[in-house]
TrEMBL record:
Domain Adenosine deaminase: 11-325
Site positions (Important for catalytic activity): 220
Molecular function as annotated in GO: adenine deaminase activity; zinc ion binding
Binding-site positions, Zn(2+): 16, 18, 196, 277
EC numbers, comma separated: 3.5.4.2
Protein name: Adenine deaminase
Keywords, comma-separated and alphabetical: Hydrolase, Metal-binding, Nucleotide metabolism, Zinc
A GO BP entry: adenine catabolic process
Superkingdom of origin organism: Bacteria
Catalyses which reaction(s): adenine + H2O + H(+) = hypoxanthine + NH4(+)
Cofactor details (free text): Binds 1 zinc ion per subunit.
Length: 325
């Protein structure tokens, strides 16, 4: 199909991607064997049956359990390389990649093991595909605030290897306001700021992410549509939303892709980007997300606008952005 090729060829950046969410079930089983980690699912068929989710939490339960198979720097390198191979095939030229060190550290893996592996993967993938990438450390919002502060103590030694800090995991009941001080400290360390908000949580959480965390991008932002004033603010301040259609569908944020507010956001002038979130869990990488929007009536012009926004909304240098556009 000519259109698939046109979508694929649009230079794009991926701005909302959890590296642990690229752990395919095959790789999870292989790493479990390699590392002597016992999982409750003995074979691929049984594991595959676990991928039907009712909401964000039911996904997170599987996602955090499978993260336990990631033990060595080589594991993290292999995970990154597999992702970059797939991303490059979808026309991704730059990726800003989330990871959840608090969970790995709770599993007894050091921050250095995680980061050394991911960075080696970025280096090899960069040489292989000409793709650039950077890391965004995520705060797991349903873990104690103390654990986020302890992470920052570790991060302080490696800020040069990070572009930013984000906020992810179970949203409802964990408002951004809990992390005002954590993010203020991260900003003083020189990190750029993004935050998941308005995925399952209310529009108010998007406002808090902007006002209290000083978020420069909002991850998801589906529920911002409920607050007209907030939408106007996103437009005026040109705050990109990193939207993930297949994720929202699979986690029942919406019943149908047509119920996503993307059309209304584009018409209002919001900066919208298209991303894959946790592609190994949600049935598609970034190209599939673009394709799914095309299939329900978004035009090539709409999608080219999103692709362009992903580059200008990235934290890549001006020079790199110009080279990508
Ligand atoms: C996530 Cl889809 C989603 N939402 C919030 N936190 C996450 N961590 C990984 N995937
Ligand atoms: Zn996400």
């Amino acid at each position: 199909k000519a259109t698939v090729e046109m979508l694929r060829r649009m230079p794009k950046a991926e701005l909302h991607l959890h590296i642990e969410g690229t752990l395919e079930p095959e790789l999870a089983l292989r790493l479990a064997r390699r590392n002597g980690v016992t999982l409750p699912w003995k074979d691929l068929g049984t594991l595959r049956q676990q991928y039907e989710f009712s909401n964000l939490q039911s996904f997170l339960d599987l996602y955090y359990q499978l993260m336990g198979v990631l033990r060595t720097a080589d594991d993290f390198r292999d995970l990154m390389l597999d992702y970059l191979d797939r991303a490059a095939a979808d026309g991704v030229r730059h990726a800003e990649i989330f990871f959840d060190p608090q969970v790995h550290m709770a599993n007894g893996i050091s921050l250095d093991t995680v980061m050394d592996g991911l960075i080696e993967g970025l280096r090899i993938g960069g040489e292989r595909h000409g793709i650039t990438g950077s890391l965004i450390v995520c705060i797991v919002r349903d873990m104690p605030v103390d654990s986020a502060e302890a992470l920052l103590d570790r991060i302080a030694l490696r800020v040069g290897d990070l572009v930013g800090i984000g906020l992810d995991s179970a949203e409802v009941g964990y408002p951004p306001s809990l992390f005002t001080k954590v993010f203020a400290r991260a900003r003083r360390m020189g990190l750029r700021v993004v935050a998941h908000a308005g995925e399952e949580g209310p529009a108010d959480y998007v406002g808090e992410a902007l006002d209290l965390l000083r978020a420069e991008r909002i991850d998801h932002g589906c529920r911002a549509i409920d607050d007209e004033t907030l939408v106007g603010r996103l437009v005026k301040a040109r705050v990109p939303l990193t939207m993930c259609p297949l994720s929202n569908l699979r986690l029942n944020v919406v019943d149908d892709l047509r119920d996503l507010p993307i059309r209304r956001y584009l018409d209002a002038g919001v900066v919208v980007t298209v991303n894959s979130d946790d592609p190994a869990y949600f049935g598609g990488y970034i190209g599939d997300n673009y394709q799914a929007l095309y299939d329900i009536g978004y035009t090539l012009e709409d999608l080219a606008r999103c692709a362009r926004a992903s580059i200008t909304g990235s934290f890549a240098s001006e020079t790199r952005q110009r080279a990508l556009l």
